[in-house]
Design goal:
This is Glucose-methanol-choline oxidoreductase N-terminal domain-containing protein. Belongs to the GMC oxidoreductase family. The chain is an alpha/beta fold. The chain has a domain at about 65-250 and about 340-355 and about 385-610: Glucose Oxidase, domain 3. It has 19 helices and 22 strands. The radius of gyration is 23 Å and the shape is globular.
């Protein structure tokens, strides 16, 4: 294993994982009759809020989770196997509705159905967006939700470990200590192994004039940068919401968690001409009796951008016309619920390369894989310590195409309503018009990344960061056990397709650099013979997928502009109900969303506590 040990750093032996501790309730009879706060969903947002609210021993908190605890399987804990839980019992196994804009394909959109949520399923990319990404939330009228307001909460979440000597000496990795936290629950560190072709890709990035950011965490997530992961630097295992925000609170008897129970409704009543939350209803399965728990202060929906709007709708909060169609009585007329739904678009391009040590060795060479796994388990070193994406590139439009002015002109002349779902309510249309104007203003500035590039040994993932397209989430019936109809609207707006076409062309520019020439790259997808914009567009429609970042379906904003929650994340028209998850994001940041969800949840907890 000389070819591995020469690249990896040795670490201490993995200590035995501690047994589960904490107040986990196995049956309904163990629950209190009521709780101050009932949190729906035990993912990044839900566990963060529950942890922080339960810091006050006099406050009672219950978390209700549809999934179960994972069993520390290798594909959950080992970074090199990250993503292996997708499609298992820990995944809701949801899909986006098939639409013409993506060649009538139903696109899989994994969602965590496990304590820890999607932080157990994802590829452990722990980056932030740029200052511009969050300041635009505030520009849309959401005071207190800009970069300066969120930065303390990004830091509060972190237990940061800087790049090690290997990263510094071999890659000249840098960091800005002022942008990081050291006292948080979430381990944030850099894998001790980096696939060697990454260094050549970085040389290619420099060759075409892309700058290297000192640290993406300080609001300058532009150009190329070294990306940390939610990874324990001692055991080199995944640090998920479960490890960070649940396992650390074993002494808190005021924080309860029940698993295997799916929330069916938020219970409400009318008091003094106001609608108030009274409880939360749940059941273990569709054909099983429901139970309920009373809420003293608030219910907090943290079920994610697909399931949170569904829960609101089956609870009677949403568009009366839609609610009537699924036989649900309207409790709060709030038509914007489920609208403004969007996601980052992922496009995978593939070049075969000639290199001695590549990621595919783990799947194509059984001996290499077995020896690498043994190295991980005995020394916490080698390829399996790396969840990939050690180096990311985020580019403004002007950085990768000469067609920026043309695309901007098309955007400015476009009717914002022309490509929205036909049933978009007037409020959401008004809000989207403001978003459209803001997207137009930012698209040709150097402060706003439009595309992301992820290198994976010849495969180059192209990610669309600020999509113009919008879709919706709708409950399919009055039962939350029937999957909601989720449509992210992928590529419905032609601007998104035009940007991705230029993105593929720039991928070819990178592959033609002198740096990468040593690998003798051969384009497999889309293929060198696919050259016209029309043919590239067809390839994109037939291949586009998701970066797993659904958001926006319960938007933060003014009610008359499509907002579902106010600046304190309170749902309009009802007392005692908040939304704390990615569904509140009015616009996606140019980043992977996990870190932002943690920051939003940390901030939400302080808002609830009145800090």
């Amino acid at each position: 294993m000389r070819y591995i040990s020469s690249l990896a750093l040795l670490a201490p032996l993995v200590s035995a994982r501690p047994p589960f501790k904490g107040v986990f309730l196995e049956k309904n009879s163990d629950l209190l009759p009521s709780y101050d706060y009932v949190v729906v969903g035990a993912g990044a947002a839900g566990l963060t809020v529950a942890n922080r609210l339960s810091e006050d021993a006099a406050t009672t908190v219950l978390v209700i989770e549809a999934g179960v605890f994972d069993k520390n399987e290798d594909y959950v804990t080992i970074p090199g196997l990250a993503g292996g839980a997708v499609g298992t019992v820990y995944d809701w196994n949801t899909t986006y509705a098939a639409t013409e804009s993506v060649a009538n394909r139903a696109i899989s959109i994994p969602q965590g159905r496990v304590v820890g949520g999607s932080t157990k399923l994802n590829r452990m990319v722990f980056d932030r967006g740029s200052r511009s990404d969050y300041d635009r939330w505030e520009t849309l009228g959401n005071t207190g939700w800009g970069w300066d307001s969120l930065l303390p909460y990004f830091k509060k979440n972190e237990k940061y470990t800087p790049p090690n000597e290997y990263m510094v000496s071999e890659y000249n990795a840098t960091f800005d200590a002022s942008a990081h936290g050291s006292d948080g629950y979430m381990h944030v560190s850099y894998a001790p192994f980096v696939w060697p072709t990454t260094k050549t890709f970085i040389d290619a990035v420099k060759e075409v004039g892309i700058s290297i950011s000192e640290d993406q965490a300080n609001g300058n997530a532009l150009g190329g940068f070294y990306c940390p992961h939610n990874q324990d630097p001692t055991t080199e295992t995944r640090s998920s919401a479960r490890e960070a925000y649940w396992n650390t609170v074993e002494t808190r008897t005021n924080l309860h968690l029940i698993t295997g129970q799916q929330v069916t409704r938020v219970l409400t009543s009318a008091k003094n001409n106001a609608v108030c939350v009274t409880g939360v209803e749940y059941a273990p399965a569709k054909d099983q009796p429901t139970s309920s728990v009373k809420v003293n202060k608030e219910a907090i929906l943290a079920a994610g951008a697909i399931f949170t709007p569904q829960i609101l709708q089956v609870s009677g909060i949403g568009d009366p016309a839609h609610l009537s169609s699924i036989n649900v009585s309207t409790v709060v007329d709030l038509p914007a619920v489920g609208h403004n739904f969007h996601d980052h678009v992922l496009l995978t391009t593939v070049n075969s390369i000639n290199a001695p040590l590549v990621q595919s060795n783990l799947t194509s060479n059984a001996t290499f894989a077995a020896e690498s796994l043994e190295l991980f388990k005995s020394q916490q070193a080698g390829p399996y310590t790396d969840p990939t994406a050690a180096f990311l590139v985020f580019l403004p439009l002007n950085n990768f195409t000469t067609e920026a002015a043309t695309i901007h002109e098309q955007a400015v002349s476009q009717d914002p309503a022309a490509f929205l779902p036909s049933d978009t309510p007037a409020e959401s249309l008004k809000g989207y018009q403001a978003q459209h104007d803001l997207l137009n203003a930012k698209i040709i500035t150097p402060e706003s990344a439009v595309l992301e590039y992820i290198w994976a040994d010849g495969a180059v993932v192209v990610g669309l960061e600020h999509p113009y397209s919008r879709g919706s989430v709708k409950a399919a019936s009055a039962s939350t056990f029937d999957a909601p109809i989720a449509d992210a609207g992928f590529l419905t707006n032609p601007l998104d397709l035009a940007i991705l076409v230029e993105g593929v062309k720039y991928m070819r520019t990178l592959m033609k650099t002198n740096a990468l020439a040593t690998f003798q790259p051969f384009e497999v997808l889309p293929g060198a013979n696919v050259t016209s914009d029309e043919d590239l567009g067809n390839f994109i429609r037939q291949s586009a997928s998701t970066l797993f970042h659904p958001a926006g379906s319960c938007m933060l904003g003014a009610r008359e502009e499509g907002g579902v929650v106010d600046s304190e994340l309170k749902v309009y028209g009802i007392n005692g109900l908040r939304v704390v998850d990615a569904s509140m994001m009015p616009l996606l940041p140019a980043s992977h969303t996990m870190t932002t969800v943690y920051a939003v949840a940390e901030k939400a907890a302080d808002i609830i506590k009145g800090i």
